[in-house]
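[Meeting: bench + compute handoff]

Bench side (C.D.) handed over the final construct sequence. Compute side (W.E.) agreed to return the predicted structure before the next meeting so the bench team could plan truncations. Sequence as handed over:
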Amino acid sequence: MREIAFIKTNKDKWLEFEQAIFGKAKKNPDEMANLYIQLMNDLSYAQTYYAKSKTVVYLNYLASQIYQKIYKTKRAESNRLVYFFKTEVPLIVYDYRRYLVYAFVLFFVTVFLGAISARYDADFVRLILGDSYVNETLENIKEGNPVAIYKSGSNWGSFIGITFNNLKVGMTCYIFGIFGGIGTFYISLQNAIMLGSFQYFFLQQGVFWKSVRGIWIHGSMEIFGIVIETAAGYILGASILFPKTYSRMNSFKIGFKNSFKIFLSTVPFTIAAGFLEGFITRYSIDMPNWLSSFIILFTLAIISFYYLIYPFIVHKKTQPI
């Protein structure tokens, strides 16, 4: 790459580094360390190909300033956990927002494929959900409670079992991103096709609204969380496939650290979804419509705000005036 092209490609990023060092926007030591790694990659590249250039002097100066800033400001946060959820994760989500778009688009497309498959293949739902589940649900529909299956087991037993299973699914969906994102897409595809065929099955049986009232009490957070975990898996895969100006190993380190933080942020929502499924969903058939609708919309609003709106608010607040 010619030097002028190298400068043009990275100019905006270096200006952002300057703002982080000399501007009013505050960054914590972890973020500064991340900037330092990125800058050292650029400096190493410049030293290799433009050894006598002023670009090397400039980057070396920025690197030294960031290094000093890290060790001058490196102290424990007054409340690291609050900072993690309040500031750190939203800023990371903002930086990787396009991966959330990819995850949502692909998920909804594959949900639609699942519904279409269920419509045109009478045996598709049994293939995906299993004969025993379908037969039991058909019996429950005849008895007037299509989501009675969620009443099985004790409250605490269901909550613990469901939560651990959902955490396992989410972790698998994320970790499989190491296979270039293909593994993550495969897990997401399975869940999306299951969801699409599952909901179309209830539509065919004429109990779609009853199923929505029950399933989506916990499903709003559970499914939304899976999509976010899918996005984290895509970020992990992209860090391996598209290292840009970094070495592949440094790109992977940055991608893993940031995507893992996004994954960790979904854990409270997964636990909350497990609690709702274990303690609330089983009573949905006896709830008034307004209450079940409120729970669904409220839980969806919370998780949607945190991942789709709040990152933009935090990003705007941290920008220099």
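W.E. noted at the follow-up: Residues 3-75 form one domain. C.D. will use this when planning the next construct.
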